[in-house]
C-alpha cells in the first residue's frame, strides 16, 4: 500500500495557506505548513516532504533563497513548485535557476495547481522507485552491496559519537557451489531467496540485512554487544540448518558459517578495518569446519 504523499505548503498569508491545505487534504495528501523561509528550510530537511509548494515573498528569507538552500542541502530529490504573484518572465527564470522544478503564478485556479501537483508527484514517485531499486538485491529483495557502504559508515559514526557499540555479522552459505553444481542454478537461486526470507523472519526491524556477494550476506545489529550477537548468530545458524530447503521436487540441507565483529572494539577501531575483520572471522569459521560462528580476534 502506498503512503499518502507528504506536501509542505509555505505561505505567509493565512487565508491562502488554509485554502491550499484544505484542497490537498481533500486529495488525500498529508500536509505540513510553514509561514516563513527559514522555517520552510528546517521543516523540509527534517521531514523530507514529497513536494513543496512555496510562496516567493516571505519573511526571514524569501522563497527563492529557501528553495536554493533546500536543493543544495537535502540528500534526496524534493520537488519544489514556486507559487507566487511575481508573474514576469524574469521572475520565472530566476525561480527555476534557484532550483525550482515548476512555477505557478497567483492568482491560480485550483484545477491547474492540482494538475501540476499530480504531475510532480508522478516524477517524485518514479525517482523514489528508482532509488529503492538501486539499493535492493533483485533476487532476495533485501539490501544490496551499494546500500551497505554508506550505511555502515553512518553506523560507525553514530556508534563512535554515542559510545554505543553495534555488531557486524558476515554469513556465508557452506559449499554453495556444490548446490549449484548438483541441483542447478535455478535451485541455487531459490535457496538464496529462501535463506534471506528465513533470516528476515528472525531479525529485528532495526537490523540491516544485506546481500554482500553471491552467497555472502552482511547483517548489522545496532546497539548489540558480543554476547547478544553470538546468541543471534547461533539462533540463525539453527534456523538455517533445522529445515531443508525445498523447491519443486528438489530439496537440500544447507548450513552457513558466520563471522562476527563488534564495532568499536579491539578488533576494529575504524570503519575501514571492520569489514576486513569480520571477513577474517568468517574465514576462521570456514577453517573450523563450517556451520559455526567465530568472533574477530
Ligand atoms: Mg507571501
Element-by-element helix/strand order:
EHEHEHEHEHHEHHEEHEEEHE
Give a short account of the largest sheet. 5 strands, parallel
User: What would CATH call the class of the largest domain?
Assistant: Alpha Beta
- The average pLDDT score comes to 96
Which kinds of small molecule does this entry bind, naming each only once? magnesium ion
Q: Count the beta strands.
A: 12
- Kindly report the CATH topology of the largest domain: Alpha-Beta Plaits
Question: Which strand order does the major sheet show?
Answer: 2-1-3-4-5
Beta-strand portion reads 15-25%
Can you tell me the overall shape?
elongated
Tally of helical segments: 10
Low-confidence stretches: none
Structural class: alpha/beta
Structure, described:
The chain has two domains: 6-129, 3-Layer(aba) Sandwich (Rossmann fold), CATH 3.40.50; 145-295, Reverse transcriptase/Diguanylate cyclase domain (Alpha-Beta Plaits, 2-Layer Sandwich), CATH 3.30.70. With 297 residues, the chain is of the alpha/beta class. The mean pLDDT is 96. The chain has helices spanning 14-26, 37-47, 63-73, 89-97, 110-134, 145-162, 176-183, 185-201, 226-241, 271-287; strands at 6-10, 30-34, 51-54, 80-84, 102-105, 166-173, 208-211, 216-221, 245-247, 250-252, 256-263, 293-295. The strands form three sheets. Strands 2-1-3-4-5 form a five-stranded parallel β-sheet, sandwiched between helices. A five-stranded mixed β-sheet has the order 7-8-6-11-12. Strands 9-10 form a two-stranded antiparallel ribbon. Helix 2 packs parallel to helix 3 and helix 7 (176-183) packs across helix 8 (185-201). Helix content is 49%, strand content 20%. The longest helix has 25 residues, at 110-134. It binds magnesium ion (MG). The site of magnesium ion has 6 residues, from loops.
Amino acid at each position: 500500500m502506498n503512503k499518502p504523499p507528504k506536501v509542505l505548503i509555505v505561505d505567509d498569508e493565512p487565508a491562502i495557506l488554509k485554502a491550499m491545505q484544505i484542497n490537498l487534504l481533500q486529495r488525500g495528501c498529508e500536509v505540513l505548513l510553514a509561514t516563513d523561509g527559514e522555517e520552510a528550510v528546517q521543516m523540509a530537511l527534517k521531514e523530507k516532504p514529497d513536494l513543496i509548494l512555496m510562496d516567493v515573498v516571505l519573511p526571514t528569507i524569501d522563497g527563492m533563497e529557501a528553495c536554493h538552500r533546500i536543493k543544495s542541502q537535502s540528500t534526496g530529490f524534493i520537488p519544489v513548485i514556486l507559487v507566487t504573484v511575481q508573474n514576469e518572465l524574469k521572475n520565472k527564470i530566476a525561480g527555476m535557476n534557484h532550483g525550482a522544478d515548476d512555477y505557478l503564478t497567483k492568482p491560480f485556479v485550483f484545477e491547474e495547481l492540482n494538475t501540476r501537483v499530480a504531475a510532480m508527484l508522478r516524477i517524485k514517485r518514479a525517482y523514489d522507485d528508482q532509488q529503492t531499486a538501486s539499493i535492493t538485491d533483485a533476487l532476495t529483495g533485501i539490501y544490496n552491496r551499494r546500500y551497505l557502504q554508506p550505511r555502515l559508515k553512518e553506523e560507525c559514526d553514530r556508534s563512535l559519537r554515542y559510545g554505543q557499540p553495534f555488531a557486524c555479522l558476515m554469513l556465508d552459505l557452506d559449499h554453495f557451489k556444490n548446490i549449484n553444481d548438483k541441483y542447478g542454478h535455478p535451485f541455487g537461486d531459490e535457496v538464496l531467496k529462501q535463506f534471506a526470507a528465513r533470516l528476515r523472519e528472525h531479525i529485528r526491524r532495526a537490523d540491516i540485512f544485506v546481500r554482500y556477494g553471491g552467497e555472502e550476506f552482511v547483517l548489522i545489529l545496532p546497539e548489540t554487544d558480543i554476547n547478544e550477537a553470538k546468541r543471534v548468530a547461533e539462533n540463525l545458524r539453527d534456523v538455517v540448518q533445522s529445515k531443508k530447503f525445498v523447491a519443486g521436487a528438489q530439496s537440500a540441507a544447507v548450513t552457513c558459517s558466520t563471522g562476527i565483529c563488534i564495532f568499536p572494539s579491539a578488533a576494529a577501531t575504524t570503519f575501514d578495518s571492520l569489514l576486513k575483520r569480520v571477513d577474517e572471522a568468517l574465514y576462521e569459521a570456514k577453517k573450523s569446519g563450517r556451520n559455526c560462528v567465530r568472533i574477530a580476534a
